[in-house]
């Protein structure tokens, strides 16, 4: 799966580096040699997101997306959040991207630098 919708939304989000948080994350992304999906999946692990993904339901060829948080994270979230079930891949990726954007948006620079 290419995660093209997710990557496109992240590219749009980070095209305006208008906050310290966005500049910080983007500086880590530059040179990582990954697309946004793979970079953020790896990078956000250090901040309490155990995993996020879009998965296929083989029974009906529809998709689901989720985010799973560790007990200690900078986002004040707990457990696993299912964002979409039995939807198109674009919809599942869009809901995942919107949630990641919202999580980033509601943090401040001091949450990220330790």
Briefly characterize the structure.
By secondary structure, this protein is an alpha+beta fold. It has helices at 4-14, 20-29, 36-43, 89-105, 109-112, and strands at 49-57, 62-69, 80-87. The longest helix has 17 residues, at 89-105.
Rg of Cα set: 14 Å
Distance between the termini: 34 Å
Question: Strands across the major sheet, in which order?
Answer: 1-2-3
Q: Which percent bin holds the helix content?
A: 40-55%
SS summary, helix count: 5
Mean pLDDT: 94
Based on CA inertia axes, which overall geometry fits? Answer: globular
Low-confidence stretches: none
Order of helices and strands: HHHEEEHH
Beta-strand fraction estimate: 15-25%
Q: How many DSSP E strands?
A: 3
Main sheet, how many strands, which sense, barrel?
3 strands, antiparallel
Helix/strand class? alpha+beta
Question: Topology, pairings included?
Answer:
Layout: H1 4-14, H2 20-29, H3 36-43, E1 49-57, E2 62-69, E3 80-87, H4 89-105, H5 109-112
Supply the key terms.
3 strands; globular; 5 helices; 22% strand; alpha+beta; 44% helix; 114 residues; three-stranded antiparallel sheet
């Amino acid at each position: 799966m290419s995660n093209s919708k997710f990557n496109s939304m992240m590219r749009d989000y980070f095209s305006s580096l208008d906050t310290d948080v966005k500049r910080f994350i983007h500086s880590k992304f530059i040179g990582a040699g990954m697309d946004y999906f793979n970079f953020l999946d790896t990078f956000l692990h250090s901040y309490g997101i155990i995993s996020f993904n879009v998965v296929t339901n083989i029974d009906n060829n529809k998709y689901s997306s989720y985010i799973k948080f560790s007990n200690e994270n900078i986002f004040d979230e707990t457990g696993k959040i299912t964002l979409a079930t039995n939807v198109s891949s674009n919809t599942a990726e869009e809901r995942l991207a919107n949630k990641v954007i919202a999580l980033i948006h509601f943090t401040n620079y001091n949450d990220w630098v330790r």
